[in-house]
Amino acid sequence: MPAMSKIKSRKLLRLIRKTLYYLIPPAILVYIFMKIDINSFFTSLKNIELKFFLLGLAFYPLIICVGAYRWYYLKRRMINPGIPLSFSMNNYWIGLSVGFLAPGSIGWDMLPENSAA
Q1: Most buried among 9, 72, 87, 106, by the most CB within 10 A?
Q2: Mean pLDDT over each residue of the chain, to the nearest integer
Q3: CA distances from 7 to 11, 12, 18, 98, 116 (A)
Q4: C-alpha to C-alpha distance for 6 and 12, rounded to whole angstroms
């Protein structure tokens, strides 16, 4: 009987995870869009310098590729020479997007100034 309850609890846990996997991203998007001032957003879009916007849009993927290649090169030299570039690109992209949401330096401003850290 205990083995049966273990299987049921695993299935329930899997169901909960899958449900959260599909519910959390739309909930975050709804929250974000509720906080956006739509009139201010469209006013900003009207006042944008199109050439600078397009230039930034063109260069951003290049910056991501250069950063991912740098990470690939360092990992390949220091850790494992068999790491493929596609793995590094994928993980760099994931890390970059997670870093926008939860930067690693959050809380560093709370350290005392005379701290050795």
Answers
A1: 72
A2: 81
A3: 6, 9, 16, 33, 50
A4: 10
